Structures
1.
Amino acid sequence: MYKSIAIDGPAGAGKSTIAKRLSEKIGFNYLDTGAMYRSYTYYFLANNIDINDEELINSKLDDINLSIEDNKFYLDGKDISKEIRSEQVTKNVSLVSSYRRVREKLVEMQRKIAKQSNIILDGRDIGSHVLKDASIKFFLTASAEERARRRLQDSKETNQDFEAVLADIKRRDDFDSTREITPLKQADDAILIDSTDLSEDGVIDLMKQYLEQNHVI
Ligand code: CDP
């Protein structure tokens, strides 16, 4: 049986960076589930499909040919890993992620991938829904201000200001935690890590300690 690690938490908590670095350190694979929702969102925007129309979205799902290799995301074989980080995708991804059929399709893919190796998955609903029996679950958070500050620091788009990024983070937190289907929520058995005052290395060391204590590694 392969081991799986779930890392959930709100936007900008550092999940992807931490998950990626931790996976390299402990020799696990890594799947960024947010990037899967971003890839679908990119597909709809690029093909001028109205993302407000859930029925239309449902009817297009079988046309999407998403593949993942080495943490890179491809649509019909074209690498879209950069495009899915755009401000436009970020603005629209929570709406697309709130649709039931979209979630069912991507969760099925996530579970299939998780079965194939030792792996870390990061997202919003991994511990609470996708991998309920994960070997260990973390809920990684930080204050909204700190998350906005980090997001701004990482952003390659130069025309963003702090208040706008903070507002988008708060809007997405709200949307993700109040949506009807598998909202963002800490699983009962998840370990809470507040990274507001922790460095990346600090978070990784702490997680490693928990992994050792719980015999995951
Ligand atoms: O990296 P960032 O925190 O900006 O977000 P992300 O992990 O790339 O996820 C983008 C969006 O996808 C989130 O705001 C959620 O709306 C959605 N998402 C989700 O619904 N379920 C997941 N397992 C992962 C992401």
2.
Amino acid sequence: MMDLMTDNKVHDESRQGEAYAPFANDPNQYKKKFYIESYGCQMNFSDSEIVASILNSAGYGATRDMEEADLVLLNTCSIREKAEQTIRKRLTEFRKAKMRKPGMLVGVLGCMAERLKANLLEEEKLVDMVVGPDAYRTLPGLIVEAEGGQKSVNVLLSRDETYADISPVRLESNGVSAFISIMRGCNNMCSFCVVPFTRGRERSRDAQSIVAEAQDLFDRGFREVTLLGQNVDSYYFVDEKSNETVSFANLMERVALISPDLRVRFSTSHPKDITDEVLHVMAKYENICNYIHLPVQSGNTRVLQLMNRTYTREWYMKKVDRIKEIIPDCGISSDIIAGFCSETEEEHQDTLSIMDYSQYDYSYMFFYSERPGTLAARRYKDDVPEDVKKRRLQEIVDKQYYLSLDSNKRDVGRTYKVLIEGESKKDANAWMGRNSQNKVIVFAKEQYDLKKGDYINVTVTDCTKGTLLAVIEK
Ligand code: SAH
Ligand code: SF4
Ligand code: F3S
């Protein structure tokens, strides 16, 4: 799993930034091999695990070595222009691999496939397949077509596809934490955002299948699940058999009840939808983590209106108060956009001051990047000069640096229950894990017989901006 806490920096590409290539999952079991790289948000990483499962059934096993792959896939992101540029560069590198191995097929999946559709085949000659996020079930057929020399495209969006029955193949897993996709698409139409166009209408996955997946993960030794969606708080499922309706709060409770040893997290919450009901369920169950990602985007009401976020500065502040009231030790993080269309210096100052007010533990910070077809691109001028955008972003980043450091300093001397995720990257004699608030904690193994997936109480002794350093509580 990506290290979210040390990721507290400018994200010019995507939330999770780096691409990854999966483990070979017993490759000899399969006749052919695929290689997949994922970009963008957690949803995309989770989708790649669904794709892996579909490909396994079609006789393709995963490999980490692109050179030996028969099929090379890029699961792409369109959120900002820079993300698309990174992917184009990567495709150029694939061209060389394809020259060495002419039979190799190249497929583009995900949001960029959806946005550019068949145009991608024109623009990127080496691409054989373009497959949108709701069309992964058709991959085996599309591969056969492409093997026959016919370029193939399926970018149909669906109103009901949730891949509920597909058991994801956990690709780059630490064996402790896993993502579970609970809904797809987004109906929110924030004016800057391309996601509603690339992922289609919002739909919620069958609650039973989500709980069953979480139970299966727990039985296999996993100890933490993150319920994923672009807007998890609007999860809503009606069970046709029992006529029962399931809200996000109900769903979270059901997952939490699997075992007190299974931690439950979720991402992302739109501030407008996070209800008291959700906050009370979080407070009630110790294993539902006290951490909320609550993207503010801007601290100014006029800009928020232009962004179509549907809340004001004051409303957001009250939401933060409410969270702290119901869950006093709740960690809060944010997404922030600098230099949105027509943003003034005073309005930018409002963003800096709402950061102070909310005391974010960390933030993902971006400068505005106009995306074709979005409401903002059609209606507003992208008129804040690039150097001004970058300067404002730097001020936001600097502010967050101090907020993160302060937040970590306040934790020194406190004791936290940590779920061990693995060895520290820097020190084989230390464990790395997270507390409920999603902060990374590193501590010496000492003489104790601990392993990945164990819980242990530690006391924080020191910190950096991104990490808490601790000792095992005696
Ligand atoms: N569904 C999630 C966000 C997904 S996109 C949510 O609503 O919280 C992740 C973040 O990328 C957004 O929160 C926003 O801060 C940023 N982002 C989206 N479109 C952008 C754009 N056009 N320019 C810059 N940042 C953008
Ligand atoms: Fe984009 Fe807004 Fe939907 Fe998030 S809630 S995915 S920012 S439209
Ligand atoms: Fe990117 Fe698509 Fe996610 S645009 S952020 S991969 S939903």
